[in-house]
Amino acid sequence: MPVVDSADAAGRRVPGSGSGPGTAPGSAQVGTASTGTEHSSADRASALSAVPAAGSRRGMPPTGCVKFFYGPMDCGKSTLALQLDHNHSRQGRRGLLLTRLDRSRTGQISSRMGLSRAAVEADDDLDIAELVRACWAAGRRVDYVIVDEAQFFTPAQIEQLTQLADDVQVDVYAFGIATDFRGRMFPGSTRLFELADESIPLQVEVLCWCGRPARFNARVVDGVVAREGAQVVVADTATGTAEVRYQVLCRAHHRSGDLGPDSGEGTIPLVPAT
């Protein structure tokens, strides 16, 4: 049956718009027949509105973050800690700075670039959660906690930091070394790897004397790489008059104990000479 042309309101003929087979009189036929599956954009939006947004907390209360920035000696951990504190404080946030056995040994976070800021010196008995509560009781707000030399904090203190993040939405930024002079994990660092939301290796590359990336912190006593001893040795705590210093090495030279042709290059004293 031929398609009948119809006329528009002005009397002009509109080709192919008239009634055809299976078309109700007076209705317009559009290209292809409807399949009955089309939905308007409003229908689609309505359907999607019932789907929770990806990553939404779905009614759960917010929590603070726990981030662990780690790397070998001399990779800029303390410098980054101070920069992060600066950035947050400029936006009106109030922070609490903690450290333990800083190179300056004066209750501050200090970097080898000459930057420093006062910090609370922690010991094994410090309850960090109670310290934050004491700050609040004194009228001082704490929005975030920065922990430098985090490897020296106890596993229990690391758990206190995660408690602050989860229970009272305090953000925690920890900075530290992962392994000791033997290449074994510090307990505090181990607990951070287990509990932190993010563990972030610092991107500043530290080199061994041979030019390869260095991630081992060798303890050097009387010019020899130490294999035994206390896990934590700060300043001149070794017996007698032995010179104690640290030098970053690649795995191969840490294993062999080779300090390079000029062992004075690339060494990192624990405390600057006075």
Description:
It is a single chain. With 274 residues, this protein is α/β, with parallel strands linked by helices. Among the domains are: 136 residues, Rossmann fold (3-Layer(aba) Sandwich); 53 residues, no CATH class. 22% of the residues lie in helices and 19% in strands. Strands 7-4-8-9-3-10 form a 6-stranded parallel sheet, sandwiched between helices. Strands 12-11-13-14 form a 4-stranded antiparallel sheet. The longest helix is centred in the N-terminal third of the chain and has 14 residues. The C terminus is likely disordered.
Count of helix runs: 6
Structural class estimated from helices and strands: alpha/beta
What is the helix content?
10-25%
- Kindly provide the radius of gyration, computed on alpha-carbon positions and rounded to a whole number of angstroms: 33 Å
Query: Widest sheet: strand order?
Result: 7-4-8-9-3-10
User: CATH class of the domain at 66-201, anyone?
Assistant: Alpha Beta
In sequence order, what are the helices and strands, one letter per element? EEHEHEEEEHEHEHEEEEHE
Tell me, briefly, the overall form: elongated
Give the amount of beta strand, in percent: 15-25%
Low-confidence residue ranges? 17-34, 47-55, 235-241, 265-274
Q: In CATH terms, what is the fold-level topology of the domain at 66-201? A: Rossmann fold
The span between the termini is 106 Å
Q: Give the rounded overall mean pLDDT.
A: 79
